[in-house]
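Follow-up to my post from last week.
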Amino acid sequence: MKLFVGEGNPHGVKVLAAAALWAEHVHINRLQQEEKIVPFMSQPRLPALDLENGNYLFLSNAVCRYFYLSSGHDVCNLSNQWLEWEAVELQPAFSAALYAHVVQGRKKEEVIASLSASLSHLDQSLAGKPSPYLVKDALTVADIVVWGSLYPLIEDASSLPEEMKLLKHWFQTVSQLEQCQKAVSFLMKDGGSSVFKPYLQKQPVPITPSGKPTCN
Amino acid sequence: MAVKELVALEKCLGLNSGKYSSRAQGAGKIPVLQTNKGPSLVGLSTIASHLVKEAKKEELLGSTAEEKAIVQQWLEYRISYIDRASSKEDIRNVLNDLNHYLKDKVFVAGNTVTLADILIYYGLHPVITGLSVQEKETYINVSRWFSHIQNYPGIRQHLPSLVFIKNRIYASNH
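User reply:
Got it. Predicted complex:
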Protein backbone atom coordinates (compact mmCIF):
# COMPACT_ATOMS: atom_id res chain seq x y z
CA MET A 1 0.00 0.00 0.00
CA LYS A 2 1.01 3.56 -0.64
CA LEU A 3 0.68 6.42 1.78
CA PHE A 4 0.71 9.91 0.27
CA VAL A 5 1.47 12.96 2.38
CA GLY A 6 1.66 16.55 1.16
CA GLU A 7 4.64 18.78 1.83
CA GLY A 8 3.70 21.10 4.68
CA ASN A 9 0.26 19.53 5.17
CA PRO A 10 -0.17 19.30 8.96
CA HIS A 11 -2.50 16.28 8.77
CA GLY A 12 0.51 14.23 7.73
CA VAL A 13 1.90 14.16 11.30
CA LYS A 14 -0.60 11.69 12.73
CA VAL A 15 -0.68 9.30 9.76
CA LEU A 16 3.12 9.11 9.63
CA ALA A 17 3.28 8.40 13.37
CA ALA A 18 0.53 5.74 13.09
CA ALA A 19 2.32 4.16 10.11
CA ALA A 20 5.59 3.99 12.05
CA LEU A 21 3.85 2.49 15.08
CA TRP A 22 1.51 -0.04 13.54
CA ALA A 23 1.85 -0.51 9.78
CA GLU A 24 3.92 -2.92 7.78
CA HIS A 25 4.77 -2.74 4.10
CA VAL A 26 3.70 0.82 3.62
CA HIS A 27 5.46 2.88 1.01
CA ILE A 28 5.53 6.56 1.89
CA ASN A 29 5.36 9.16 -0.86
CA ARG A 30 5.94 12.80 -0.09
CA LEU A 31 4.26 15.04 -2.66
CA GLN A 32 5.58 18.54 -3.28
CA GLN A 33 2.08 19.93 -3.58
CA GLU A 34 -1.50 18.84 -3.15
CA GLU A 35 -2.24 16.34 -5.90
CA LYS A 36 -5.33 14.39 -6.75
CA ILE A 37 -4.63 10.84 -5.60
CA VAL A 38 -8.13 9.65 -4.72
CA PRO A 39 -9.88 9.22 -8.08
CA PHE A 40 -13.46 9.69 -6.84
CA MET A 41 -12.80 12.94 -4.98
CA SER A 42 -13.09 16.15 -6.98
CA GLN A 43 -10.60 18.02 -4.74
CA PRO A 44 -7.10 16.79 -3.85
CA ARG A 45 -7.22 15.12 -0.45
CA LEU A 46 -4.07 14.41 1.47
CA PRO A 47 -3.00 12.43 3.37
CA ALA A 48 -4.41 9.48 1.43
CA LEU A 49 -3.79 5.75 1.59
CA ASP A 50 -3.97 3.78 -1.65
CA LEU A 51 -4.78 0.20 -0.62
CA GLU A 52 -3.87 -0.93 -4.14
CA ASN A 53 -7.06 -2.95 -4.62
CA GLY A 54 -9.20 -0.05 -5.82
CA ASN A 55 -9.95 1.21 -2.30
CA TYR A 56 -8.63 4.45 -0.81
CA LEU A 57 -8.70 6.03 2.60
CA PHE A 58 -8.84 9.81 2.34
CA LEU A 59 -9.51 10.98 5.91
CA SER A 60 -6.48 10.98 8.19
CA ASN A 61 -8.31 9.41 11.15
CA ALA A 62 -9.46 6.52 8.97
CA VAL A 63 -5.86 5.96 7.84
CA CYS A 64 -4.67 5.88 11.48
CA ARG A 65 -7.53 3.57 12.43
CA TYR A 66 -6.70 1.21 9.57
CA PHE A 67 -3.03 0.92 10.61
CA TYR A 68 -4.08 0.33 14.22
CA LEU A 69 -6.70 -2.30 13.33
CA SER A 70 -4.43 -4.12 10.91
CA SER A 71 -1.84 -4.65 13.66
CA GLY A 72 -4.45 -6.69 15.55
CA HIS A 73 -5.87 -4.04 17.87
CA ASP A 74 -9.53 -3.35 18.43
CA VAL A 75 -11.04 0.14 18.72
CA CYS A 76 -13.28 0.49 21.79
CA ASN A 77 -16.21 2.88 22.38
CA LEU A 78 -14.03 5.37 24.21
CA SER A 79 -11.44 5.44 21.42
CA ASN A 80 -14.25 5.94 18.88
CA GLN A 81 -15.46 8.83 20.98
CA TRP A 82 -12.00 10.46 21.02
CA LEU A 83 -11.65 10.04 17.27
CA GLU A 84 -15.06 11.57 16.67
CA TRP A 85 -14.35 14.42 19.09
CA GLU A 86 -11.05 15.07 17.34
CA ALA A 87 -12.76 15.21 13.92
CA VAL A 88 -15.73 17.32 14.99
CA GLU A 89 -14.27 19.66 17.62
CA LEU A 90 -10.53 19.61 17.92
CA GLN A 91 -9.47 19.51 14.27
CA PRO A 92 -11.54 22.53 13.13
CA ALA A 93 -10.47 24.55 16.18
CA PHE A 94 -6.78 23.68 15.81
CA SER A 95 -6.76 24.23 12.05
CA ALA A 96 -8.21 27.70 12.59
CA ALA A 97 -5.67 28.42 15.34
CA LEU A 98 -2.73 27.18 13.26
CA TYR A 99 -3.91 29.34 10.37
CA ALA A 100 -4.23 32.39 12.62
CA HIS A 101 -0.70 31.86 13.96
CA VAL A 102 1.18 30.83 10.82
CA VAL A 103 -0.61 32.80 8.10
CA GLN A 104 -2.09 35.76 9.95
CA GLY A 105 0.84 36.16 12.32
CA ARG A 106 -1.14 36.06 15.57
CA LYS A 107 0.88 35.31 18.68
CA LYS A 108 1.15 31.65 19.59
CA GLU A 109 0.14 32.20 23.25
CA GLU A 110 -2.95 34.08 22.08
CA VAL A 111 -4.16 31.39 19.71
CA ILE A 112 -3.43 28.66 22.25
CA ALA A 113 -5.47 30.60 24.82
CA SER A 114 -8.42 30.55 22.38
CA LEU A 115 -8.31 26.74 22.50
CA SER A 116 -8.64 26.51 26.27
CA ALA A 117 -12.04 24.73 26.19
CA SER A 118 -10.68 21.82 24.11
CA LEU A 119 -7.42 21.71 26.03
CA SER A 120 -9.06 21.63 29.44
CA HIS A 121 -11.43 18.90 28.27
CA LEU A 122 -8.32 16.83 27.49
CA ASP A 123 -6.60 17.75 30.75
CA GLN A 124 -9.66 16.83 32.83
CA SER A 125 -10.12 13.53 30.98
CA LEU A 126 -6.61 12.51 32.00
CA ALA A 127 -7.32 13.13 35.69
CA GLY A 128 -7.72 10.13 37.95
CA LYS A 129 -6.14 7.74 35.46
CA PRO A 130 -3.32 5.45 36.49
CA SER A 131 -1.63 5.80 33.08
CA PRO A 132 -0.65 8.89 31.11
CA TYR A 133 -2.76 7.76 28.10
CA LEU A 134 -6.28 8.72 27.02
CA VAL A 135 -7.76 5.21 26.90
CA LYS A 136 -6.95 2.31 29.20
CA ASP A 137 -3.36 1.88 30.29
CA ALA A 138 -1.55 1.87 26.97
CA LEU A 139 -0.97 3.97 23.90
CA THR A 140 -3.90 3.69 21.46
CA VAL A 141 -4.93 5.23 18.16
CA ALA A 142 -6.83 7.87 20.20
CA ASP A 143 -3.55 9.26 21.60
CA ILE A 144 -1.95 9.46 18.17
CA VAL A 145 -4.93 11.10 16.48
CA VAL A 146 -5.35 13.74 19.20
CA TRP A 147 -1.61 14.32 19.58
CA GLY A 148 -1.21 14.63 15.80
CA SER A 149 -3.85 17.35 15.76
CA LEU A 150 -2.14 19.32 18.54
CA TYR A 151 1.48 18.87 17.53
CA PRO A 152 1.79 21.21 14.51
CA LEU A 153 0.82 24.18 16.67
CA ILE A 154 2.00 23.15 20.14
CA GLU A 155 5.35 21.49 19.24
CA ASP A 156 6.62 21.67 22.79
CA ALA A 157 4.79 20.81 26.02
CA SER A 158 5.99 24.13 27.47
CA SER A 159 3.61 25.96 25.08
CA LEU A 160 0.65 24.44 26.91
CA PRO A 161 -0.99 26.35 29.78
CA GLU A 162 1.05 25.97 32.98
CA GLU A 163 -1.84 24.66 35.10
CA MET A 164 -2.63 21.76 32.72
CA LYS A 165 -0.02 19.44 34.17
CA LEU A 166 -1.63 16.16 33.09
CA LEU A 167 -2.03 17.38 29.54
CA LYS A 168 1.60 18.52 29.45
CA HIS A 169 2.77 15.16 30.75
CA TRP A 170 0.64 13.28 28.20
CA PHE A 171 1.82 15.49 25.33
CA GLN A 172 5.44 15.01 26.31
CA THR A 173 5.04 11.24 26.72
CA VAL A 174 3.58 10.84 23.22
CA SER A 175 6.00 13.34 21.62
CA GLN A 176 8.96 11.43 23.02
CA LEU A 177 8.02 8.20 21.24
CA GLU A 178 10.62 7.40 18.65
CA GLN A 179 7.96 6.87 15.95
CA CYS A 180 6.41 10.25 16.67
CA GLN A 181 9.77 12.01 16.56
CA LYS A 182 10.46 10.33 13.24
CA ALA A 183 7.11 11.49 11.83
CA VAL A 184 7.76 15.03 13.00
CA SER A 185 11.25 15.28 11.58
CA PHE A 186 10.12 13.73 8.27
CA LEU A 187 7.43 16.35 7.83
CA MET A 188 8.69 19.40 9.71
CA LYS A 189 12.45 18.99 9.26
CA ASP A 190 13.01 20.99 12.45
CA GLY A 191 11.55 24.00 10.70
CA GLY A 192 8.80 24.63 13.28
CA SER A 193 5.20 25.44 12.42
CA SER A 194 6.28 27.84 9.64
CA VAL A 195 6.78 24.78 7.37
CA PHE A 196 2.98 24.68 7.13
CA LYS A 197 2.74 28.22 5.74
CA PRO A 198 2.80 27.51 1.97
CA TYR A 199 0.12 24.84 2.38
CA LEU A 200 -2.09 26.87 4.70
CA GLN A 201 -1.90 29.98 2.53
CA LYS A 202 -3.65 28.08 -0.24
CA GLN A 203 -6.49 27.02 2.07
CA PRO A 204 -9.67 29.07 2.54
CA VAL A 205 -9.78 31.12 5.74
CA PRO A 206 -11.02 28.59 8.31
CA ILE A 207 -14.34 29.13 10.01
CA THR A 208 -14.03 28.54 13.75
CA PRO A 209 -16.55 26.18 15.39
CA SER A 210 -18.39 29.17 16.83
CA GLY A 211 -19.13 30.20 13.24
CA LYS A 212 -16.97 33.31 13.22
CA PRO A 213 -14.09 33.74 10.76
CA THR A 214 -10.70 33.95 12.47
CA CYS A 215 -9.86 37.36 11.07
CA ASN A 216 -11.49 40.59 12.29
CA MET B 1 -32.21 15.41 14.34
CA ALA B 2 -29.35 13.21 15.45
CA VAL B 3 -31.34 11.80 18.40
CA LYS B 4 -34.33 11.02 16.17
CA GLU B 5 -31.99 9.26 13.80
CA LEU B 6 -30.45 7.17 16.60
CA VAL B 7 -33.94 6.14 17.75
CA ALA B 8 -34.68 5.06 14.15
CA LEU B 9 -31.43 3.09 14.15
CA GLU B 10 -32.41 1.39 17.44
CA LYS B 11 -35.71 0.29 15.88
CA CYS B 12 -33.89 -0.90 12.78
CA LEU B 13 -31.57 -2.97 15.00
CA GLY B 14 -34.42 -4.28 17.16
CA LEU B 15 -33.19 -2.52 20.31
CA ASN B 16 -35.22 -0.80 23.00
CA SER B 17 -35.00 2.96 23.07
CA GLY B 18 -32.12 4.41 25.12
CA LYS B 19 -31.97 7.59 27.18
CA TYR B 20 -30.74 10.48 25.05
CA SER B 21 -29.94 14.11 25.61
CA SER B 22 -28.18 16.73 23.50
CA ARG B 23 -25.14 18.85 24.14
CA ALA B 24 -24.48 22.14 22.39
CA GLN B 25 -21.43 22.02 20.18
CA GLY B 26 -20.46 24.93 17.95
CA ALA B 27 -23.54 25.97 16.01
CA GLY B 28 -25.13 22.51 16.25
CA LYS B 29 -26.02 19.88 18.79
CA ILE B 30 -24.34 16.62 19.56
CA PRO B 31 -26.23 13.56 20.90
CA VAL B 32 -25.40 11.97 24.26
CA LEU B 33 -26.49 8.44 25.26
CA GLN B 34 -26.77 7.51 28.93
CA THR B 35 -25.68 3.87 29.14
CA ASN B 36 -26.57 1.48 31.95
CA LYS B 37 -23.00 0.41 32.44
CA GLY B 38 -20.23 2.97 32.51
CA PRO B 39 -20.13 6.59 31.42
CA SER B 40 -22.35 8.20 28.81
CA LEU B 41 -21.34 8.15 25.16
CA VAL B 42 -21.07 11.31 23.06
CA GLY B 43 -21.38 11.72 19.30
CA LEU B 44 -23.45 10.27 16.47
CA SER B 45 -20.99 7.78 15.02
CA THR B 46 -19.70 6.67 18.45
CA ILE B 47 -23.24 5.97 19.69
CA ALA B 48 -24.35 4.35 16.42
CA SER B 49 -21.31 2.01 16.46
CA HIS B 50 -22.08 1.14 20.09
CA LEU B 51 -25.74 0.34 19.26
CA VAL B 52 -24.66 -2.01 16.48
CA LYS B 53 -22.45 -3.90 18.96
CA GLU B 54 -25.27 -3.99 21.55
CA ALA B 55 -27.54 -5.54 18.93
CA LYS B 56 -24.80 -8.09 18.17
CA LYS B 57 -24.79 -7.07 14.51
CA GLU B 58 -21.07 -6.37 14.28
CA GLU B 59 -21.13 -7.26 10.58
CA LEU B 60 -22.66 -3.79 10.07
CA LEU B 61 -19.29 -2.31 11.11
CA GLY B 62 -17.37 -4.25 8.43
CA SER B 63 -15.61 -7.59 8.69
CA THR B 64 -11.95 -6.90 7.85
CA ALA B 65 -9.64 -4.15 9.13
CA GLU B 66 -9.99 -2.48 5.75
CA GLU B 67 -13.79 -2.60 5.73
CA LYS B 68 -13.97 -1.36 9.31
CA ALA B 69 -11.77 1.63 8.45
CA ILE B 70 -13.83 2.36 5.34
CA VAL B 71 -17.12 2.22 7.30
CA GLN B 72 -15.76 4.60 9.96
CA GLN B 73 -14.31 6.88 7.29
CA TRP B 74 -17.75 7.34 5.75
CA LEU B 75 -19.29 7.91 9.17
CA GLU B 76 -16.78 10.71 9.68
CA TYR B 77 -17.51 12.00 6.18
CA ARG B 78 -21.21 12.03 7.06
CA ILE B 79 -20.60 14.15 10.17
CA SER B 80 -17.81 16.37 8.86
CA TYR B 81 -18.89 16.96 5.27
CA ILE B 82 -22.57 16.09 4.72
CA ASP B 83 -23.79 17.62 8.00
CA ARG B 84 -21.59 20.70 7.61
CA ALA B 85 -22.55 21.40 3.99
CA SER B 86 -23.98 24.88 4.42
CA SER B 87 -24.04 26.30 0.89
CA LYS B 88 -25.43 24.97 -2.39
CA GLU B 89 -21.86 24.58 -3.56
CA ASP B 90 -20.95 22.40 -0.54
CA ILE B 91 -23.97 20.19 -1.26
CA ARG B 92 -23.01 19.93 -4.93
CA ASN B 93 -19.48 18.90 -3.95
CA VAL B 94 -20.74 16.20 -1.59
CA LEU B 95 -23.16 14.84 -4.18
CA ASN B 96 -20.51 14.91 -6.91
CA ASP B 97 -17.99 13.01 -4.80
CA LEU B 98 -20.54 10.43 -3.69
CA ASN B 99 -21.85 10.05 -7.23
CA HIS B 100 -18.36 9.35 -8.46
CA TYR B 101 -17.60 7.00 -5.57
CA LEU B 102 -20.80 4.97 -5.96
CA LYS B 103 -20.40 4.58 -9.74
CA ASP B 104 -19.28 0.95 -9.47
CA LYS B 105 -20.75 0.15 -6.05
CA VAL B 106 -23.94 -1.31 -4.61
CA PHE B 107 -23.03 -0.43 -1.01
CA VAL B 108 -20.75 2.21 0.51
CA ALA B 109 -18.32 -0.36 1.97
CA GLY B 110 -17.82 -3.96 0.90
CA ASN B 111 -20.53 -6.17 -0.55
CA THR B 112 -23.23 -5.89 2.08
CA VAL B 113 -25.13 -3.14 3.82
CA THR B 114 -23.19 -1.45 6.67
CA LEU B 115 -23.73 1.31 9.19
CA ALA B 116 -22.16 3.68 6.63
CA ASP B 117 -25.07 3.08 4.22
CA ILE B 118 -27.61 3.62 7.00
CA LEU B 119 -26.14 6.87 8.41
CA ILE B 120 -25.36 8.39 5.01
CA TYR B 121 -28.91 7.55 3.94
CA TYR B 122 -30.31 9.30 7.05
CA GLY B 123 -27.97 12.27 6.57
CA LEU B 124 -28.74 12.68 2.87
CA HIS B 125 -32.51 12.31 3.22
CA PRO B 126 -33.21 16.06 3.63
CA VAL B 127 -30.76 16.84 0.79
CA ILE B 128 -32.32 14.37 -1.66
CA THR B 129 -35.81 15.55 -0.66
CA GLY B 130 -34.85 18.99 -1.99
CA LEU B 131 -33.57 17.77 -5.38
CA SER B 132 -35.51 18.20 -8.61
CA VAL B 133 -36.13 15.24 -10.93
CA GLN B 134 -33.40 16.58 -13.18
CA GLU B 135 -30.89 16.83 -10.31
CA LYS B 136 -31.72 13.28 -9.25
CA GLU B 137 -30.75 12.23 -12.76
CA THR B 138 -27.53 14.23 -12.61
CA TYR B 139 -26.52 12.31 -9.48
CA ILE B 140 -27.73 9.05 -10.95
CA ASN B 141 -25.47 6.75 -8.90
CA VAL B 142 -26.44 8.46 -5.64
CA SER B 143 -30.12 8.12 -6.64
CA ARG B 144 -29.75 4.43 -7.48
CA TRP B 145 -27.96 3.74 -4.19
CA PHE B 146 -30.42 5.87 -2.17
CA SER B 147 -33.45 4.16 -3.70
CA HIS B 148 -31.90 0.77 -2.92
CA ILE B 149 -31.17 1.64 0.74
CA GLN B 150 -34.59 3.19 1.41
CA ASN B 151 -36.17 -0.06 0.22
CA TYR B 152 -33.82 -2.19 2.30
CA PRO B 153 -35.86 -3.90 5.06
CA GLY B 154 -36.01 -1.94 8.32
CA ILE B 155 -33.83 1.05 7.43
CA ARG B 156 -36.30 3.74 6.33
CA GLN B 157 -38.39 3.83 9.55
CA HIS B 158 -40.28 7.14 9.93
CA LEU B 159 -38.71 8.83 6.89
CA PRO B 160 -40.93 9.45 3.87
CA SER B 161 -40.13 7.30 0.85
CA LEU B 162 -38.72 9.44 -1.97
CA VAL B 163 -39.66 8.94 -5.59
CA PHE B 164 -37.12 8.13 -8.27
CA ILE B 165 -38.02 7.75 -11.92
CA LYS B 166 -36.54 4.61 -13.45
CA ASN B 167 -36.24 5.87 -17.01
CA ARG B 168 -34.39 9.06 -17.77
CA ILE B 169 -36.63 11.86 -18.93
CA TYR B 170 -33.86 14.39 -19.57
CA ALA B 171 -31.34 13.96 -22.35
CA SER B 172 -28.08 12.59 -20.96
CA ASN B 173 -24.88 14.58 -21.50
CA HIS B 174 -22.97 11.45 -22.41
